Structures are given as C-alpha cells and as structure tokens.
Amino acid sequence: MSRSGASSPRSSNPLRDARDRRLNRIAGPSSLVLFGVTGDLARKKLMPAIYDLANRGLLPPSFGLVGFGRRDWSDDEFVAEVKESVTQYARTPFNDAVWEQLSAGIRFVQGTFDDDEAFGALQECLEELDRDRGTRGNHAFYLSIPPDAFEAVCQKLSEHGLAQPDDGQWRRVVIEKPFGHDLESAQELNRIVEEVFPPDAVFRIDHYLGKETVQNILALRFANQLFEPLWNANHVDHVQITMAEDIGIGSRAGYYDGVGAARDVIQNHLLQLLALTAMEEPISFDAEHLRTEKEKVLAAVQLPDDLAGRSARGQYGSGWQGGEHVNGFLEEDGIPADSVTESFAALRLDIHTRRWSGVPFYLRTGKRLGRRVTEIAVVFKRAPNLLFREHDEAAFGQNAVVIRVQPDEGVTIRFGSKVPGTQTEVRDVTMDFGYGHSFTESSPEAYERLILDVLLGEPPLFPRQQEVELSWQILDPFEKYWQSLDGQPETYEPGSWGPASADELLAADGRTWRRP
Ligand SMILES: NC(=O)c1ccc[n+]([C@@H]2O[C@H](COP(=O)([O-])OP(=O)(O)OC[C@H]3O[C@@H](n4cnc5c(N)ncnc54)[C@H](OP(=O)(O)O)[C@@H]3O)[C@@H](O)[C@H]2O)c1
C-alpha cells in the first residue's frame, strides 16, 4: 500500500454506470480533522456537508469529526457550534437519530498552529477515536485556513507522527484554493505540503469540480453522440465561459485586495471549465487519465508575446443596483483608494490543437454584474449557405449549446426556427433541459461529493499540482501585462456586464458577449 493508503477497492470513475450508482459509496471507518472550524467555509459549507453525508447514510457509524482551533471550547460547546451550523445550513432535514450518532464522534482540540502541546492533544484525541469509535487510524486533515498557515500545520502534523500512517491505514490532507499567488508561490506551497504528504495523499479542492453540472460536461460530451462530432473548429465559432456575481466583495477585502478576479476565479474555476470543455476524450475517468487530458489542453493554451488587446479588467463604481445604492470597489471597507486590484477580468485564450485551432475561448468573471450566473456557451458557426437571407441578425443569431452551471442548472440549445406565417422568417428558439424538471432528487452540494471522495480516496475530481502550475503559466503573463499598465482598471457600472474594454475585446473579433 502507498504511504497515503489511497486504496479504494472501488473504481475511481466519477460517472458511475446505472448498476453501480445503486450501490451507495460509503466511506470506511475514518475521521476528519478540521482546521479553521470557526471560519466561514467550515460553518456554511463543510460542517453542513458532513451532516448531509451522515444523513444520507454515506458516513460509517464509526466516523469522527475533530475541530482544531484557538477558541476555548469544550467538546460539548463545539458540538453545539456544529449543531447550529447544521440546522442553519444543511441541505437535508435535521434528524435526531443521525445527529445523535454523528455528535457522539465529535471532539474539539484547542490550540494554535505552533503549539506542540495542542498537537500532542490532537494525537491523543485521534488515538482515542481509533480505540473507542473504531476509526482505525484513517485520518483526513482539512486545512480550511489561510495558506500561510499550511507550513506550520503540516510540520506539526509530521513532527507528531500524524501524517505517517501505519500499514493498512491512510492519512490525507485537503487544501483549499488559492493554490498560491503565481507560479512560483504555487510551487513553494506545494513543496511545503509534499514535504510531509506524498502527492497521492494531497487533495486540492476546487469546489467547482464537485458540482453536478460541471461533472455533467463529461456526460454531455462523452455519453452522447449528438454533440461530439460538432465539438471542434470545423463547427464551433467560439466559446464563452462566464462566472458572474451580482454582489460586491462584502467583507472579503483583506483577502481580495492584491488578489483580484483573475487569480480568485479564472486561475482555478474558469480554467477547469475550459479544460473540461476542450479536452479530448480520456481513455477512462480514472484520475490519471482525466487529469492527463485536462493538462494537455492547458499546456496547449499558447499566448502571443504581445498581450495588448487580449484582456480587459475593471473595477465596479458606485451606483444603483437592484433598487439599492452600492459602494464602488474603491470605497469598500478595507480597500485602499488607489487599489489597482480588478473586480472584473476577461481574457481571450487560444488552444493550439487541431481540434481548436482558430476558435477563441473568451473567459470573464466579475463582481457586481447584471446577474449571478455561471455558464459555458459553445457558439457555432453560421450555416454555410443561408437561404433565409432576409433574416434579422438580432432575432436569429448563431446556434449555441449553453451549459448552465448555476443557478437554474441545466443545458440550453439555441437554434433557428421558422416563425409561423406565410413569410420565411427565422427566429431563435431554445430547447431546455433543467435538472429540476428531469430529476426528482436535488443535487448534493459540491462539498458533500468532495468530502466523500476524500474519505474514499478517490482523486479524479481534485486537480493535481501539474494542473495548478499550468494554470498559473497561463495567468501570470496577463498579471505581468496588467502590472505594466499605468493607472486604475476601468470603472464599470454596478449591474452592468463589465467595462467597455470587455466589449471591445470581442468586438475586435466581430463578436459580442452573451447577456445571460
Ligand atoms: N469562504 C469560502 O467560500 C472559500 C472558498 C474557497 C476557498 N476558501 C479558502 O478556505 C480557507 C478558509 O476560508 P474561510 O472563508 O473559512 O476563512 P476565514 O473565515 O478567514 O477563517 C479562517 C479560519 O482559520 C483560522 N485561523 C486563521 N489563522 C489562524 C492561526 N494563526 N491560528 C489558528 N487558527 C487560525 C481562523 O480561526 P479564528 O476564528 O480563531 O481566527 C478561522 O477558523 C481559506 O484558505 C480560503 O482562502 C474559502
């Protein structure tokens, strides 16, 4: 067995066949140690997801949850904290019997990240869980903490023998984005983590990959015959990938300033969506095969030496949005008045492969935009011979397949149809698939899927270091280019779709952004 013990008897196929799907994938005896229990992510997403997994019968009866933090909490006080977060944020209804079983395995260890005594107490706590709850030495360490604390925690875990499993056991570490600030810092971060944990024990969470709609990109493309023959430069004109938020930065100024929209979202979520949309069919959905195909696409993104005209960036100004007057980015609490951090970024990327040569991929993300929406729009070329010459370009656009990642999850196909009447007028119509209409069960939260996969040791949905580095190699030149520009990013109206330069980016290619 490998040091990490990433040995699941099950296949690591993220798209299970119908027969397999009926067999629940239940985690084996194990415990999860959560660093950063008082943080937003732990309270709103992680602890509720753990409860939802328990409620769905996917955690073993012998599961342990250990919180590690600097609050002066007893086990009982921590249990009460977890209960509050579960009742407030869990997806599934509260069930007393499930809670009783889960809460019996909840412990709290108080301490800071450089505190040997606290890590000694953590070791004892895990030994007690192994002994009394039967967690069998299988432990996952979830670092829901700022990346500058990873080194201290990994070192202490190692010094206290917590990162090294005995035979037949496993130890895993889960890290959250951001995976560095640029290529160099990503490599340094990786060095720190992999000094203690072997590569197959490191689970990097990009929670977008845990979303059903994102996994459905693979089903849409590779389980059907309808789309794949058209999914190439012969038929596709361009691809637009959008992640828009209608809110501002809220209380995240401390994190966001100096990071910005491109590092926060494009480096991870949007480049993952690009890779899944553009990759070749993997020979299986095993982690190795899936990751290799994604990496090939990212490696094939080649940038011109001169990046002028290849990107746009902006900062939201103050104004009215949704009937409310909102602050501009530079007026937000904690943002310096001369900050050059962007709250909107758009890029044009070209993938130099036979399949995609000449097909631009446009990526955009921003805050305080018109709507909260994430989608991938594959826009097709016009028919080579259009008999309907009199068509109105505004009413009859280009055919498109739009994968709606969130909200209103589903897929839309847009095509032209004859308008009823005696004329030969053609207009766009849409065919919609919505998860809510086609399936009765609600989709699990991304974190439910990902935490379960960590406990099962199934890595396909977790990017490996190579993907992280390739993504920074794409983004770093844009960051350098932006730094070389004088002055602030362009201001855009709250509730709009970004700065004028974003429209110009596409207009230069004779195209326009979709208004989702
Ligand atoms: N929030 C999200 O939706 C989201 C999304 C993606 C990625 N992430 C990443 O996930 C991680 C957690 O995010 P978050 O939003 O939960 O952050 P957060 O609200 O700032 O929480 C950070 C946690 O780390 C603890 N912490 C920080 N420094 C510490 C120290 N020196 N010693 C002990 N504990 C320390 C804090 O404990 P105290 O309460 O004691 O300060 C708190 O529990 C971050 O790396 C973030 O970048 C978050």
Structure description:
It catalyses: D-glucose 6-phosphate + NADP(+) = 6-phospho-D-glucono-1,5-lactone + NADPH + H(+). Its EC number is 1.1.1.49. Catalyzes the oxidation of glucose 6-phosphate to 6-phosphogluconolactone. The protein is of the alpha/beta class and 516 residues long. The protein folds into two domains: 14-176, Rossmann fold, CATH 3.40.50.720; 209-380 and 445-452 and 463-507, Dihydrodipicolinate Reductase, domain 2 (2-Layer Sandwich), CATH 3.30.360.10. The protein has 15 helices and 17 strands. The strands form three sheets. It has a nine-stranded mixed beta sheet, with helices on both faces. Strands 3-2-1-4-5-6 form a six-stranded parallel beta sheet, with helices on both faces. It has a two-stranded antiparallel sheet with strand order 9-10. Helix 7 (183-194) packs antiparallel against helix 14 (465-484), helix 10 crosses helix 11 (287-299) and helix 11 (287-299) packs parallel to helix 14. The longest helix is centred in the last third of the chain and has 20 residues, at 465-484. It is globular. The relative contact order is 0.14.
